[in-house]
Amino acid sequence: MPEQTTTTPAAHPAPPPSGARPARASGRRPSAAGARNSLARLGPWPWIGPSVVLILMVVVWPVVEMVITSTHKISGLGIDFGSDGIGRYRKLFDDARLGPVMAWTVVWTVLVVTFTMVVSLALAQLYNQKFPGRRFTRWALIIPWASSVIVTSIGFRWMLDEVAGVLNRAMLDLGLIHSAENWTGDAAHAKPWLILVAVFVSLPFTTYTLLAGLQTVPGEVYEAARVDGAGKWQTYWRVTLPLLRPSFLVALVINLINVFNSFPVIWGMTQGGPNTDTSTSTVFMYILGQTDVGEAAAMSVVNFAVVIVMVLLFLKVSRWNEES
Amino acid sequence: MNKRLWIATATAATAALALTACGGSSSGSGSSADGTTTIKFVAADYGSNGQNPSQAYWDGVVQAFEQANPKVKVDLQVINWNDISAKLATMVQNKQYPDVVEGPGYASFAQNGLLYGANDVLDASVQSDLVPALAKAGQQNGTAYGIPFVSSSRAFLINNALWQKAGLPMSGSQAVAPKTWAEVETDAKALKAAGVQVPLGLPLGSEEAQAESFMWEMNNGGGYTDAAGKWTVNAPANVATFQQLGKWVDAGLTEKDPGSVKRTDLYADFASGKVGMLNGMPTQLDDIKKNNLQVTWAALPTAQAGGTPQTLGVGDWIYGFKPGGHAAQIKAFLNFAFQKDNQVKFDEEYNLLPVTKSAITQVQTDVPALVPFLNALPAAQFVPVANPAWDTVNAQVKTQIGGALKDPQGVLDTLQKAAATAGQ
């Protein structure tokens, strides 16, 4: 990269990295060449600088603020009572609600990602076939992705409403239930619906990632499999899935992070309630913020640590992809 | 570390600082060279469904005020009720204090010395015009910090058409309202038998659960605090109240899961004729009129026969923040905002109750429908708004108390403990 920054058109085709040095002597006076040279001295920074500043400002700075906040005692109304050491973490880990919240977060992440991956594999396989109307159905799949997640969630919340919801009306009229249910009113009823909506909004991205992967599988390998007499399932397990591994892993890890961090589905449908019965750790953090900003920040730090682990996993997985 | 990296880091840091500084100064308020002072005013939005936003009301008031006081500019920000506490918390945490706030509670701010006393920011003549019960709720340790701006009280509300459909007694065009909880139960059963979807509305969801619980508790001799101000969240009377409410839920006399029912959603269901009875408030008057519903307003039913019906009073507060140092300008603005015409206009727009005696007289003649609520106001009970721990307790009660329908003792014990340790 440094070569590209020593920029007279007549520059030596391949100057050494320190190629800027000789020019410096003649650059004492503020001339155009001098300006170019001091620019050159900065190496790649003028080019990557803006993105570094951006990352510092929108990623690093908030993280630092978050960690500082988690060591302060700050009321729900924002009044800062000063440093509290690890007091907020202690309060968080003593909170009886934390255990069930973390357990549900794990169940939520695992179930949503599993269902999403399985259904997406099938959908991708379907969309990889030639059939009339394929273009239309491929477009249709984008809809849950194109519409805002919070809008989808609120739409579902009202379809499931006890008094005004269309689901109760339909089921009552069909004689499937005898009295209206509140489908988002308690954890047992709400959780399956939350998972369903989360899978619904995760399908488009995952399916398209897998579909792209399927399209890179060369036809010859299928031909070879056929010549070797492999059956349909055998071909799928031994040929398609292994070749799909790169896109499968990318989709898997991105989904893990997305679903773990997911806020709008749960907030739009149950606000994490009743109580904190349907809160994942991200929603719980928001609920904590209403009474204790410091404790909420401590929860964010814990969440952040989990995401970091997942990102490291992602990096490892992508290296594994490159190697194979 | 090499030189290039140093330069780059320094550049980045400088840029970051410069940008931060810009962000900080733009939202500040203060005096400019020509002698005008800008005060920052944050107000809650009372409009519903995007209708009649408070922005329009305050724009009018601010414009008239600025005309009368050319040396003062008001920087107005209207925030909806769901977000105002969080936004206010962010401002306070970042030390970008507003000068005047109209909306949520004042207690923690006052306790931490962030607020002007009412004497500094409101004329004595206006203060003496305030309804005493409300003015008293604005005091902390004997000093008034919170100034009531609007108020409201509650009454039991019945849908007459459903009442008749269930064959329940009428007296002329009005329903004969239940006086005791036993009668509530009998009436709810009759409504259920007649196919009413929600015989008794019980909005114990996170929107206003603290008010709904309090109304049932106070009519059973309970409440959040005792006379001395000590927390009594898990008092036997409150536990018994939730045991009774829980039985009604199990018997199918309410919604399936009142702990997830929002007040505004329930009011919408009432307006569409699906709810038999509930604890109502005057803001519903508009919807009732629009939907042409025949209704009966009555006193809240009591747990035992012969009890004196209690009702809930709610005040929204206006207060001045000290850090900006604009006491004189705030005083000028508040004196203006509390003028009778401005008060009356606001209250009639939103069917809320005035807080000054002079405005009450006016509203009584203008809006007869509000008279029962005005009459209930002087004896109404308030949640412990002056207690600085209330802000925290309030947030926890809102999300958790719905669980007390299933486990009264356990949930109320948890909340009592939270109240006792609030702020730690």
From TrEMBL, chain B:
Keywords: Signal. It holds the Pfam family SBP_bac_1. Gene3D superfamilies: Periplasmic binding protein-like II. The keyword Signal applies. It comes from the Bacteria. Residues 1-23 form the signal peptide. InterPro entries: Bact_solute-bd_prot1 (IPR050490), SBP (IPR006059). This is ABC transporter substrate-binding protein. It comes from Streptomyces tateyamensis. The lineage of its organism: Bacteria, Bacillati, Actinomycetota, Actinomycetes, Kitasatosporales.
